[in-house]
Design brief:
Keywords: Methyltransferase, Transferase. This protein has 217 residues and is α/β, with parallel strands linked by helices. It contains seven helices and seven strands; from the N terminus they run H-E-H-E-H-E-E-H-E-H-H-E-H-E. The chain has a single domain, classed as 3-Layer(aba) Sandwich (Rossmann fold), CATH 3.40.50.150. It is globular and about 50 Å long. The N and C termini lie far apart (36 Å).
């Protein structure tokens, strides 16, 4: 699996994800970015909001780059071995296209509660397997083809729909506050079909969903 990550284009690790800024809580001072890649997203948060940003990144090269941009970066997976101080808490913890790369994403969400402040929230971006190109590949081409990036990224271990994303959080003891499709794609024939089906397949326009959740105390 490491070889697959090493072969990815450098742009894979450099996204800033400005579409996620709207989901930030009204007030916050500290952020934990799980899977922070090269740290560009966290750096943007620091510049815009003057907040403290820590990161966790399994890729050695990306972690080194991120450490020059963020307040603190841990190289390695986010698990019980991550050496974040036990008393450290964050107002917001990001999982930007991370949970689908984990064999047990619920374990990461459960661990995150340890570092989430009582009023804090989780913000996650998760690929949507019902995105129309993936469905067309299944129905028309009878194929489940992995790609270098996107919904069908060959490094994804788990696949989610909007419904199963919500279930993942609820079964991990969170309350889902927001579920919203992001980076909508327009496809004329899908728009027409969606209209006649009373918007019942509107979710197929979105390659990802943003989830905002809080701890279920």
């Amino acid at each position: 699996m490491k070889e697959l990550y090493d072969k990815k284009n450098i742009s894979y690790y450099s996204h800033t994800r400005p579409e996620l800024l709207k989901f930030l809580p009204k007030t916050f001072t500290s952020i934990l970015d799980i899977g922070c890649a090269g740290g560009n997203f966290g750096q943007m948060l620091k510049e815009l909001y003057k907040c403290e940003v820590w990161g966790v990144e399994p890729g050695e090269n990306s972690a080194k780059i991120a450490s020059t941009k963020l307040d603190k970066v841990y190289h390695g997976p986010f698990d019980n071995e991550t050496d974040i101080p036990a008393n450290k808490q964050f107002d917001c913890i990001f999982f930007n296209d991370v949970l689908e790369h984990l064999a047990q994403p619920e374990e990461a969400l459960l661990l995150a509660t340890k570092y989430l402040s009582p009023t804090g929230c989780i913000i996650a971006s998760i690929p949507n397997i019902r995105f129309y190109p993936a469905i067309i590949s299944l129905l028309r081409h009878k194929d489940f083809k992995y790609l270098d990036a996107g919904v069908m990224d060959k490094t994804h271990l788990r696949f989610f729909t909007k419904k199963s994303m919500i279930r993942l959080f609820e079964e991990s003891n969170y309350i889902v506050k927001t579920v919203e499709g992001i980076n909508r794609h327009t496809f004329k024939y899908l728009e027409i079909l969606n209209f006649f089906l009373l918007k019942s397949i509107d979710d197929m326009h979105y390659p990802q969903y943003a989830i905002v959740a809080t701890k279920n105390e």
